[in-house]
Specification:
Oligomer: single chain
Radius of gyration: 19 Å
CATH superfamily: VKOR domain
CATH architecture: Up-down Bundle
Number of strands: 0
CATH topology: de novo design (two linked rop proteins)
Distance between the termini: 60 Å
Mean pLDDT: 88
CATH class: Mainly Alpha
Strand content: under 5%
Length: 214
Amino acid sequence: MSAPSAARRAVCAPPGSGVAVISRALPWLLTLGGAVGFAASLALLVEKLRVLADPDHVPACSVNPVLSCGTVMAVPQAEVFGVPNPVVGLACFAVATTVGAALLAGAEPHRWFWLGLQAGVVFGAAFVHWLIFQSLYRIGALCPYCMVVWAVTIPLFWYVTLHNTRSGHLPVPAGLRPVAEALARNHTVVLTVWGLVIVGAVGQAFWTHWTIVL
C-alpha cells in the first residue's frame, strides 16, 4: 500500500469542501446499499425460479397488472445478457457490499481500483435507466423488487462518482471545477431532484393505465 490514499486524504479535507461527508458515508452506502440490492435481486431470482418450475405460480411481487413482476419476467428485456437480470444484480451488489466492508475495515485501495469501481457503477446506472425506460414505455409494468434495485443503484453511482472526482481519481477539467464543487455541496439536493424526476416519469407513464385498471 502507498501512503495515505486519496480517500483518506479526502476524509481529512476541510469541512466545507464536501469531501468529508461523502467519503465517510460512502463505505456505509456501499455496504448497506449493496446488501439491500443483493436481497432484492435474490428475491426476484427466487420468484423467477419458482415461475420456471411452475408456470402457474404467481410471484409475490405481482400485485396487479401495473405492479407485476410476472409480466416483467416474461419479456426479453429480463434476460439482456443471456441470463436473468437478477443474476447480474447478485454479482454486482455482492461486489459493492464487499468493497464497502473492506473500506469500513480500513482498506485504502489504489486509483486503479476506484476507476474499476467507477466503471461498474456507470454500467449499473446506465443499465438501470435503460430498464426504467423499458418498464415505463415498452413493457408497461413495474416490478417492485426492480424498483428497489433502481433506488439503490442511483445513489451508489452518484456518491462513487462524487468521491472519485473530489479525491482526484477522476480528473475534472478546470472549467468544470466550479460545477463539480457545486454538485458536491448540494449532493442531497441533486439526488432528491433525480429521484423526483423518475417518480414523475413513473406517474406520468402509468396514470392513465392505472385508472383504467382500477
